[in-house]
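Feature request disguised as a bug report, sorry. It would help if multi-protein outputs had a clear separator. Right now it looks like this:
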Amino acid sequence: MLKIDVFNHIFPKSFFERMAATVEDKGKIKRWLNIPFLHDVETRFRMLEEFGDDYRQILSLSAPPIEIMGSADETPDLARLANDGMAELVDQYPGRFPGFIASLPMNNVEASLGEMDRSISELGAVGVQIFTNVNGRPLDRPEFKPLFDRMAELDSMIFLHPARGANVPDYADEDKSLYEIWWSFGWPYETSVAMQRLIFSGLFDRLPEIKILSHHLGAMAPYFEGRIGPGLDQFGSRTADEDYEGLLKRMKKRPLDYFKMFYADTATFGSRAATVCGLEFFDIDRVMFASDAPFDPEGGSMYIRETIKVLDSLDLSKEDLTKI
């Protein structure tokens, strides 16, 4: 069966070299610099041999977000470099890389709109990747509205990736997050927060056909179905200084139903329980196969292998597997 991995990461060589030279705090990209699969195509191809010719990858940049790499004047050039490099990889190796997801310089909205159009219309990108915040600013801010409007017009997918670092503390009296909690629990939290902010901003009432994929199988949403279901049906009952009850009445659907309007992928690092939970939460037509390679202990192949193993272990029809 053809397997199209929609969310895995790569750095085109020219972009990788520029990034390594641009980012002053090498701690932010320490791990990235030591995973050859990320930037060496020959290493990647050797590690992918075990999955056969029927395994394909839709390419996207890894974190860190482009917008943390420079000023609003500098990042558009970085985005162009990344997207040109992605398009070149797809042109060179169409049998393994059938498409790519474009990156945007989100600290420059006007440039992001231009790069969005160029990447999708001219380079053939299948969508764009944006992160759950833009240098600490939430995605439901009015300044980002044109980006969502344009993606809805293009009928192309937004791939929503978490962004959170150790600089975001877990407790108010601390200066940073310890023990990599910013990643283990911070990233699913970050994605879930972005989802709820977009929902309550009215995005899906305004753009009901917009396609947004929430990475890591919807983050916390499937497991917390009770909290975002009956819990948020009582939205406003816990708040006295905002008219949240009025907002709830103006919404066309239950909060839970909006969460289910997101798309999701199977990147759960090989967790069968998380995969079962996510597939029960989302409509099968809204779930796509993804591995999140290469961020596993083997440096590239383990999460692919384990994700396939989990999917093959489930009682899914061939039709549903094909949809995924």
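(second protein starts here, but nothing in the output says so)
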Amino acid sequence: MARAPRSVAGYTLHARRRGMVGWVLGVIAMAAFTVGLWPALPDPTELQQLLESVPEGVLAVFGASGDVFLSPAGYLDGRLFALIAPLVLLLFAVGAVTAATAGEEAAGRLELLLSAPVSRRRVILEKAGAVALLVVVLAVLLFTTLVVGVAAVRLDMGVAQLAAACVSLVLLTWALAALALAIAGATGRRGLSLGVTAAVAVAGYLVDSFAPLVDSLAGVRPASPFYLYRGNQPLVNGLDPLHAGTLAAATLLLVAVAAWSFDRRDIGT
């Protein structure tokens, strides 16, 4: 009989160690580049006139509003937290969690792991925990780079507001990665998991972006994960306990569904 691994989470982290280098450098470069552009922006009056000529629908696609870039919080929100940062972290997290579950199942490595005296629930929970930890690592690097960059360019932005935005970003990433985990756990199909999660993320983003312009979307906007992520404007108002709690509860529920369904499903080879 195969020996039980000391830590499934450790095995998962070890398997991701090389790929993490690129993600770490990418997140640091993304944050540094964004903050570094602030001093090069045109005069606020000229920029406002330019933005007024852009249709609101175009700005909405990028999660921005007419006053974006006119304040430090508006600049960081529109330039980084509205789209780019969620996209990067979601690509990492969803890709990692599906690779560690459905991907390893398709490759036959998961069956070898399960042949050891280790429960299925432990496998799925530790894999989820490992990916969640890596998301936190990337978010901490994002936060640290922003704090250093903001100080370097003398951008008027508080550390607490940056922390709130990064925590909210982590919660959004966890929730959508947990959705991917639940689908992968229930079906063992990586493509389906990626596709459904991408569809939910895109739909949620579009609903949140266009709800201010389309009255029929106002009623469903509160269900959008992106509304829960930044609808309260964490860079201005801090973390919203209700929004943050909803994302955290959704994550826990979806991880529980993943563990329950994975525990009862025949594993493919």
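Even a blank line would do. Unrelated, but nice: Residues 30 and 164 are 18 Å apart (CA to CA).
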